[in-house]
Amino acid sequence: MFTKMKNIDTAFRYVRGFTMLVITGCVLISCYALYKSHQLVTLMQDKVYILANGKALEAYASERKDNVAVEARDHVKTFHQFFFTLDPDDKVIRTNVTKALYLADDSAKRIYDDLKENGFYSGIISGNISQTIRIDSIAVDVKEYPYRFKCFAQQHIIRTTSILRRNLITEGSLRNVSRSDNNPHGFLIERFNTIENRDLTMKNRK
User: Could you tell me which residues are beta bridge partners of residue 53?
Assistant: First the structure.
């Protein structure tokens, strides 16, 4: 009888040990599955798919600090393209300048108001003049905030009888603001100033 009880006790300990082992294994497998699931979800959240010409292109999200210089240069480039690209059409001028002024503070608005008051835009329209800009380079110092920038560009002013090429150098600073449809990079140009804007060449049109 005693031997039988001892065998039952030993069997119970084996069963209990095996059960604990199974439970521990299940817990470990569950924790591993949860960890891998979380890792996969995080990885998928960093992926963005862009539909272009009917094709899905994969892009990767990244922290803003990794792309400050790139986004800052594109912000400055976009502002200059809108602000300095002009055609002899009042609606085009207003549309472009409005888009540009979303990207800058009142320092750019003052320049626009002065040009408008001096008849610059009406002269563009009455003279059938078109103005384009080509950005050569943009230097941004991201070591100190607000970020200072300097833009080197060339303007091409197309008149009825000639094409004038001008050198343009501007400077200013960038501070962070909220992103929006009108300001996708989330920067605002402050203390915008033109350092140089001089004639380079003039070519007569045939």
Answer: none
